[in-house]
Write a structure and sequence with these properties.
By secondary structure, the protein is an alpha+beta fold. The chain is built from 13 helices and 16 strands. It has 2 domains: about 100 residues, Ubiquitin-like (UB roll); about 325 residues, Creatine Kinase, Chain A, domain 2. Strands 7, 8, 9, 10, 11, 12, 13, 14, 15 and 16 form a 10-stranded mixed β-sheet that branches. Strands 1, 2, 3, 4, 5 and 6 form a 6-stranded mixed β-sheet that branches. β1 and β2 form a beta hairpin. The protein starts with a helix and ends with a helix.
Length: about 450
């Protein structure tokens, strides 16, 4: 309350991300904030059955009758630099008696964090974001901001004003920027942020997406984080970097100087779990129809369940560490994730898969030291490398058959997510590619 008043905030947005991956919310006036912190804001249960086209899907228990509460987490309060007199917080979805709602994605992630803690470790993570900046043409269509080259200083200069504002706005929300460069696609930018405890990492992804789009709009531009915003340009990923620590978060458990590529046995088990469940996990990390235009062989976005050191065609990459802190910089990267994902579902699913690998002491297959797309089918089979599902429908089928992930999600969240995503597959299946591109460009 005090900070909101000092910042001359009038409206505070209560943000949630739904099963369609869309960030939505309601706002309260600052004069009502004290009571809303306790009581939350009411929301119909049907909103978790809404897909990205605002079509209400049929989910038992998510019809016109019933309400939940959006209860904010005060630790996430941030004044929004790109919106006048506005602030925001992320929320938990709670039942009327105050319990965590079974279809709340943020509560799902909290549950997986608690399960990891019971197993003796904590996860730190960061979403490595890419996005495309576009300008509005006179005919109402959008075109990339520029046609510069990958890592081009011309591209840096062209986007300098808006990128400086984005960085400043993120920093104003206590989100530390680590590095920036223009990426391969025209108008494409990569801006990575500092890792954080898992829940904070997911919250920051929500604020990151909101900030990138909000600042671009203020500059008269449009920023899209869609997986494939332009059909002839490189796609946007939102890779998840993660590392394992003791529960207090002080000592890395990911590093072992004697381990393969400096990764500990615990870290290897976790990687193995992610790889084993990855064909199903894709439904959570790459959950849009548009996602699968990006996940193609030889696109450097990953298309196979391979892993290896600094292999940017592998689904899981073990990045080389930094000399100043070998132990603390040991981490793994899941390349098969994009910003159409609900960050709580994506990261919660990754934790569930990795924890399963830890519990079962799984070992990953032999690392892949080349582009796995260059292997023959027989070579990939011998190396236990599987081609990703090539459509969202196929990934949803794998998720539906993955008993571990189904159990982790719980019946209501699993059922509602699958229904929403299958409805999207059906809706986009009736339309042309231009319709798909347009809606993903705008929504994400």
């Amino acid at each position: 309350m005090d900070r909101a008043r000092r910042s001359r905030v009038r409206l505070i947005r209560f943000l949630y991300t739904d099963n369609g991956g869309v960030t939505r919310g309601k706002a309260t006036h600052v004069e009502s904030l004290a009571s809303r912190m306790v009581d939350g804001i009411g929301l119909t249960v049907a909103m978790q059955a809404m897909n990205m086209l605002d079509q209400l899907t049929s989910v038992e228990g998510m019809g016109p009758v019933g309400e939940i509460r959006l209860v904010p987490d005060p630790e996430t309060f941030a004044v929004l630099p790109y919106a006048p007199h506005a602030a925001a917080m992320t929320v938990d979805m709670r039942t009327l008696d105050g319990a965590a709602w079974e279809a709340c994605p943020r509560s799902f992630l909290k549950g997986q964090i608690a399960a990891c803690a019971e197993a003796g470790f904590a996860v730190r993570a960061a979403f490595e974001g890419e996005f495309t900046i576009a300008v509005l043409n006179s005919d109402g269509t959008y075109a990339p901001l520029d046609q510069s080259l990958c890592f081009s200083t011309i591209g840096m200069t062209t986007a300098a004003a808006v990128m400086d504002d984005i960085v400043e706005s993120l920093e104003a929300q206590d989100i530390q920027v680590e590095q920036y460069y223009p990426e391969l696609g025209h108008g494409q930018q990569e801006l990575s942020i500092r890792h954080a405890p898992a829940l904070t990492a997911a919250d920051r992804q929500v604020f990151y997406r909101e900030t990138v789009r909000g600042v671009a709009y203020r500059h008269g531009l449009f920023a899209s984080l869609a997986p494939k915003p332009f059909p002839d340009q490189a796609g946007n990923g939102s890779h998840i970097h993660w590392s394992l620590w003791d529960v207090a978060g002080r000592r890395t458990l990911m590093h072992d100087p004697k381990g393969r590529f400096g990764v500990s046995a615990l870290g290897s088990h976790f990687v193995a779990g992610v790889l084993e469940h990855l064909p199903a996990l894709l439904a959570l990390t790459c959950p849009s129809v548009n996602s699968y235009r990006r996940l193609q062989p030889h696109f450097w976005s990953s298309a196979y369940t391979a892993w290896g050191p600094d292999n940017r065609e592998g689904a899981v990459r073990i990045p080389s560490t930094f000399a100043s802190d070998r132990a603390g910089s040991t981490n793994a990267e899941l390349k098969a994730c994009d910003a159409s994902a609900n960050p709580y579902l994506a990261l919660g699913g990754l934790l569930a898969a990795g924890l399963d690998g830890v519990r079962r002491s799984l070992e990953p297959p032999e690392p892949t030291m080349v582009d796995p797309g260059n292997y023959s089918d027989a070579e990939r089979a011998a190396r236990r490398i599987e081609r990703f599902p090539t459509t969202l429908t196929a990934a949803l089928d794998r998720l539906e058959r993955d008993a571990m992930l189904q159990k982790a999600l719980g019946p209501l969240l699993a059922r509602s997510f699958l229904a929403v995503k299958r409805a999207e597959c059906e809706a986009f299946g009736k339309e042309d590619v231009a319709f798909e591109q347009r809606h993903h460009f705008w929504k994400f």
